[in-house]
Fold these 4 entries.
Entry 1:
Amino acid sequence: MTRDLDVLTSWHADWRGLRVAVLGLSVTGFSVADTLAELGAEVLVLSESATEEYERLVPLIGARLWIGDLGSVPEPLIDFAPEVVIASPGFAPAHPVIRWTQEQSIALWGDVELAWRVRDKVLRADGAPAEWVLITGTNGKTTTTQLTATMLVAGGLRAAPCGNIGVPVLDAVRDPAGFDVLVVELSSHQLWYLGLTAPAAQPVPWATTCLNLADDHLVWHGSADAYRAAKAFVYRNTRVACVYNKADDATRRMVEDADVIEGARAIGFGLGIPGPSDLGVVEGILADRAFLDDRRSSALELTTVADLAAHGLDAPHIVQNILAAAALARSLDVEPAAIAAALDAFRLDAHRIEVVARADGITWVDDSKATNPHAAQSSLRAFPGAIWIVGGDMKGVDLSELVAGAGATARAALVIGVDRGHLLEAFARHAPAVQVLEVVPGDTEEVMTRVVELAAGIARDGDTVLLAPAAASFDQFTGYADRGHRFAEAVRQLIDQGSAGDAGGSTPDADG
């Protein structure tokens, strides 16, 4: 007998005995297995590897674990005959197990779909589940998610950032404390799985945004069109506010094409003067002309660029993130004063346009989190004329357009990483006036020491040395945090060995 999955849209539905295969045993995979086991499902977890902790915990929660090669469909999965397969976000559409699942017409879910189905485990005081706010974009997702949650809390709401930010959505849904709002960061991978969701289980979020769109993860998705289509799913079924980037036509078109709940509004954000349904900047004031009755002739002040500058939040792309977060928070009636208070207390994570030192007239900035061209372009625009540290694992992305545009404004470039050839050619072809120094790969411990020495040798009073690699880090480092940490350490060592300066600090974060 085939189970009717459309009725499984509540924590209190009958999940007992449902055969579910869980692919992957990272923090997301474990949250899925743990949830299903608590619901009484029969769970088989399949993974190519597992930490000692997860290998010990999976049997304890009542699930089975199989570890082995997933390059083909394993016999234990076939024998298990799953009714549902729930994949961790790393499993691409072309993965053999994903293809097999779809060929067998087995329901294929992601962790976010399961979380939406069981979102009523813990209810608000009014007896309803937490509202969901969804955030995606090529860049700025994590910062905007953190900003939005901080603003909501400042406004008196119980809010939790979760999803791709590091805390699985299922962990937030099952938190016994309960929340008024879940602010869910979604990767394009998670959104691809949401695109498969059956109508009965499609999320109906309160507010949504796609911050920007630029080519990324093209190998995973198979094409730029598929990547864009996945991002566009964020707006589906939005009830109140579809927030889009006025400077990015792709996000506006996503909103125009989206199937939303009648009455949902399109809310634009941008660095220019806002229109009657926008948030923007007027003479240095961040203004809301979307969430007030008299928006045709007036606006509400949220904060000022000068106030943001005092906290290192005035880079143009960060101001855009702040405006997007403010739009999401205002859609939930958070007052402007609460938004201003939240911004006064907010600080960016490490490795995001972080000033790690100022010495001898030189500013050293760690934006190791700029792992793609779009993010690096934002950094270069925030620090025009910088000495630019660029390169790494390019993931097949061509940086010619970046070099010809924002990169051509750099005073000099230090090219690092294993994929240097195409990058060096791009500078020679598109930015011949930029001084280029090549850093030949060596011992990981020495790479950043050499980079910093070379940068110091050409830097002048007033210069900014900017680590914004536009590339992944795994060719030479364990992750972007490791890359940024080594940069900061090398800068501090240089300053300690030479002249005095007001060196700042940099702490590696946990995400690689």
Entry 2:
Amino acid sequence: MLADALGRPLRLIITAGQVGDVTQAPALLEGQAGDAVLADKAYDSNALRAIIAGMGAEAVIPSNRTRKILIPHDDAAYKQRNRIERCFNRFKHFRRFATRYDRRTVHFSGFVHLAAAMIWLR
């Protein structure tokens, strides 16, 4: 999920449960602009950092502990990453989202868009 600085959802790509989130990050960032991209350790990859640098933004991503040379990040800016977590928590208020009642992706995606519109208007 991609959220703006206020924690409002902008883009969402639904994947299978076993697929890593970093695989969808380039598609989420496509056509976006900003000063920084905040993400957690799961998104620490050289390829994603190159895409973010190509956007002209700063990658505020803590280094994964398996990295040989740790890449520093802005701790003050990283504290703002809680906004995406709050966005997910707003989605979880919808029981249908939290329990994934809809088994078909098209139905689940439709509900997510409806819930996102309701969250955006708050």
Entry 3:
Amino acid sequence: MDKAIELRPYQVEIGRAVLDSVLHNRGLTFTVEIARQGGKNELSAQMEVLLLTLFAVKGGNMIKAAPTFDPHVRISVARLKERLKEANLGGLWSPEAGNVLRLGRVRQMFLSAEPSSNVVVATAHILLEMDEAQDVDRDKYYKEFRPMGASTNVTTVLYGTPWKGDTLLEEVKQANLEMERTDGVKRHFHQNWEEVAKYNPLYRAYVEGERQRLGESHPLFRTQYLLEPLSGGGGFFSSQQRAQMQGHHSRGRSLEQGKIYVAGVDIAGEAEEGEDEALRAARPRRDSTVVTIGELDFTQCDEFMPEPTIRIVEHYWWTGQSHASLFPRLVDVLRNLWRCRRVVVDATGLGQGVASFLERTLGKGVVTPFAFTAQSKSLLAFDLLAAVNSGRVKAYAADGSPEFQEFCAQRDQAMSHLRANQTMNFYVDPRQGHDDFLMSLALLVKAAEYHPRNARGRVAV
């Protein structure tokens, strides 16, 4: 690795350990956790360039796999081509069928590790790499990729960042740590963001900004920068986060001139006209349509917290109401009572019709439909946690109302579940209640992405 003079000391240490195993046919398996944007992909590409040149005459295969073809495999291929060009090898390598690069008699193969992918039967003679190994299916790895190096005692490297405790990366990492304690041979490399920042002041500034924005307890900050695996799930909000959400401002019943208001609307399923009190008292109660109104305060914005504070000022809660009867109420609340600048509406399933109606009535510039999918809900969860951690979300002072009590109940009962590909679900256990206030809150945070031209101080309505 001496040729790769641009690599940082921690990258050089890893590279030398891997190359020693390759060149002496030790067949070691390494796990490499480097904080996000800390250079693991650069390290991988530089090793590939060096091994391609070292084995150009002898020949053999190197194999690199990633969780998806697009973007993971495409990015790895493009990076290797760039590094070959920079090493003045651009005219010496040639492409083969599929994602294969040949230099002399040695080949670098790139494969998708998606569960449904048809992996080409091949032997890994020199090196087997698994990128973003925390997202690679364990069965896929052990049944289809690991055997590729069995006959050659191939050196294997699993790169990634932690997620939860039952991922492929975490499993191999724990096995490596146990073997290290037995024979003293280093197999696991762990470089969190502070180690990376020693060599890059700009990176330090960026990650400190992310810590300010997300909060150190945020799942993405913990896994991608602190390199801490998470438990499989549990309470969505900690006791500290729940306390942090509680504000001291009074509940508002109408708008104040000069203030900016936005709203999150969670839509209940279609229902016949009924009595709210009776349906709410039933256990389990009927799902409800919930509107959460928030006032945006830009006066505290600065370079460390560029987003506004969100003060929840009002809740509306309708249970057992048909969508037809809700239309005029929603329009009156959102347009006439609060003059909301932005409204994010649940447009999943039957909610799509309500969202379309509001979009036509209030305008596309005001209403944003939001369809809940596994991916979009995960992003919503991360954004909500970031807003809470940064102290941007504040509920009105306790007033003993049914709305406030239900909001607090759902906040306290909210659960989370970690899923594959670093996604998260959040919800209230149906046996305990509903999550309509919780989802309305999350949609409110999405609505708070509104940015007026003059985002500081009072803005005229």
Entry 4:
Amino acid sequence: MRVAINLLTDDPDKPSGAHWFWKQTITEMVPLLSEHEELHLVVSPRIRAEHSGYGPGVRYITFPWSNERRALRTLSEHAYAPVRLPRSGIDVFNTLIAPMVKPAPGLVAHFKTLHAFTSPAALNPLVRLYRRTGYPHTAKVADAIVINSESLRQEVETYLDVDPAKLRLIPEAVDHTVFRPGDPQEAAERLRRERGIEGPFVLFVSSLWAYKNCDGLLRAFALARRDLPDHRLVVVGSAADAGYAAELHALATALGIEDHVVWVGGIPHHETLPFYRAADAFVYPSHNETFGLPILEAMACGCPVVTSDRSAMPETAGGAAVLADPEDPASVAAAIVSATGEAGPRLRELGPARAAQFTWAATAKATLEVYREVHAARGGGR
């Protein structure tokens, strides 16, 4: 069995959540391959270096562009994949949106979000149009569709005409070699020394898209400061939408909390570790998530979590977080006060236990089984 995984949707200059997902999944999958199984990674010259060192059983299929040239990447997926993949004898192709001509006997779609339908403002008009036409086509031609939560299952069944039997639920996971409990004081000292962050704080980690609701968090934090006058709000994440980021800074000023908000900006994924360890609470009041991996990363570090009471967030939190209404700043503020106070010790115990239930080894094993299932259904051996 030869499986090709499409990694072209990643931008080498701006690694996405999908980048980290595949790095972890492929690393754990390679040792599970039998002697009759191969992984072929579809890469561009610029992203190949980011996916090296996986060991035997991994080969590469090089396309000209990845997501740093989005339009050309999309064109190459539709025009080149149906020609190039058969030349490598690919049996199963894993991708986000299927080419117009199916490039392999088996096709597995990997849906992580349906923002084109649920949060359309987060996408530019052309990307939104492409996904709104590409997802229905993909749902029709795919042999299996991998989703990461029951919440996403509901969205897929709401927005797409899809056979429910195609859906395979495989949760995401936490890198427990990185995200694990540690000394909060040591982490706080590191942040003081390296980032100039002093005193107690609550934490937000996410790219600054409007649907992530950092504006709602600012309003909630302004209310919570009545009970937490010494706390700061630390915001870690790149300005994905420059206009929205400017609005956030203006809002902090209007609320009178600009001196109590620390804007860290985007940082490498692993550098979020000391922030999780030192924070009194991690607050993630997003309007819509299909999984919400930062929730588990914070829990794995022993940080109390506040998150939204809708979409996939309660499902991911599994009873180990304080839930709040993201539309109501007073609800989020009360949850912050609770998590930093009386609920904190209980959450610091429940969080790591909840996060431990999600491992990349399990994610990789389940994903490989989907490939094997599709290959067998298409007449291949095991």
